[in-house]
Design brief:
By secondary structure, the chain is an alpha/beta fold. The protein has a single domain (19-255), classed as NAD(P)-binding Rossmann-like Domain (Rossmann fold, 3-Layer(aba) Sandwich), CATH 3.40.50.720. It has helices at residues 30-39, 58-61, 74-82, 114-142, 169-187, 205-213, 215-224, 233-244, and strands spanning 19-23, 43-47, 64-67, 96-99, 149-154, 192-199, 255-258. A 7-stranded parallel sheet has the order 3-2-1-4-5-6-7, with helices on both faces. Strand 2, helix 2 and strand 3 (64-67) form a beta-alpha-beta unit. Helix 1 (30-39) crosses helix 8 (233-244), helix 3 packs parallel to helix 4 (114-142) and helix 4 (114-142) packs parallel to helix 5. Bound molecules: nicotinamide-adenine-dinucleotide (NAD). Nicotinamide-adenine-dinucleotide binds next to helix 6.
Length: 268
């Protein structure tokens, strides 16, 4: 008898029966990630103050719930999770949580305001502490040795490589990386996997905005990507699918770096 050559992890129904909660799912990368997860059978709950912008076919739309929660607000996060993540009165406890929302407030450190510093850390780090802390008891309910639950953090390649002019962004992502690794250790024996996705410079969202508005940024970014092209949002969505799939069951505390080799170069 030959073994099956078909991967059980990547069929179009590989996430059927799964509930994925994502923060920041309405953004440039988030909406593509959400669509990818829906297209592979997941139910998705999107916590984002902005409405979901992407028109979806009805069969996918019916599995998406959008809830306008500001994840920097401790009370709002607590209230949402204490209601067992109720959406329209229906419980929607997740088996997977993607802490994805983030922002960059660019600027050189010498002229950087303390307000921007705090705002960056509030969203890129503190909010993910609030969300993951609140989610652990719910994930625990779903997690088994055979079917682990998951927390995934969207970090960035610049969490480990300094990039001039991005103010608090790199330090906030570096702190997020260490938070995730500590959490991975704490939750490993409770069958909750915790991993990090570190994208590169994406031709969408915050990086595209900087690319379009800041000539210095664009010049530096062109030199910094060995494969010679901006990353697509699809590339980030594919890596997300992998980290949500059974194919990554044996990973925890790991960083999946998908950056076109950007982190190979010393900064120019
Ligand atoms: N675009 C890139 O090149 C790139 C590269 C590496 C990593 N990332 C990371 O990917 C993530 C998304 O980036 P993007 O480019 O899609 O950004 P984006 O600005 O397009 O999307 C961010 C989303 O987060 C939401 N958000 C903001 N504040 C929130 C809050 N308080 N509560 C809940 N949601 C909130 C916004 O409404 C928005 O929908 C970020 O964590 C970012 O650091 C982006």
């Amino acid at each position: 008898m030959y073994p099956s050559f078909q991967s059980p992890s990547f069929s179009s129904t590989c996430l059927a029966g799964r509930t994925v909660l994502i923060t920041g799912g309405s953004g440039a990368l988030g909406q593509v990630m959400v669509a990818r997860l829906l297209a592979h059978g997941a139910r998705v709950v999107n916590l984002d103050p902005c409405a979901f912008p992407l028109p979806l076919p009805p069969q996918l739309q019916s599995r998406l719930a959008s809830v306008p929660v500001d994840i920097t607000d401790e009370q709002a996060v607590t209230d949402f999770f204490q209601a067992s993540c109720a959406v329209d009165g229906e419980p929607c406890a997740p088996d997977t949580v993607i802490c994805h929302a983030g922002a960059v407030l660019p600027g050189a450190i010498e002229s950087y305001t303390y307000a921007d510093w705090k705002k960056t850390f509030e969203l890129n780090l503190n909010a993910h502490f609030l969300v993951s802390r609140a989610a652990i008891p719910l994930l625990q309910r779903k997690a088994t040795a055979e079917q682990p639950a998951r927390i995934l953090f969207t970090s960035s390649w610049v969490g480990q490589v300094p990039w001039p002019g991005n103010g608090a962004y790199s330090p906030s992502k570096a702190a997020l990386d260490m938070f995730a690794k500590g959490l991975a250790r704490e939750l490993a024996d409770r069958h909750i996997r915790v991993n990090i996705l570190a994208p590169g410079i994406v031709g969408a969202g915050m990086a595209l905005k900087q690319w379009n508005e800041d000539a210095q940024y664009q010049k530096r970014a062109k030199l910094a990507i060995p494969v010679g092209q901006l990353q697509s949002a699809d590339s980030v969505a594919e890596a997300t699918l992998f980290l949500c799939s059974r194919a990554s069951d044996y990973m925890t505390g790991a960083t999946l770096l998908v950056d076109g080799g950007a982190s190979l170069y010393p900064m120019i």
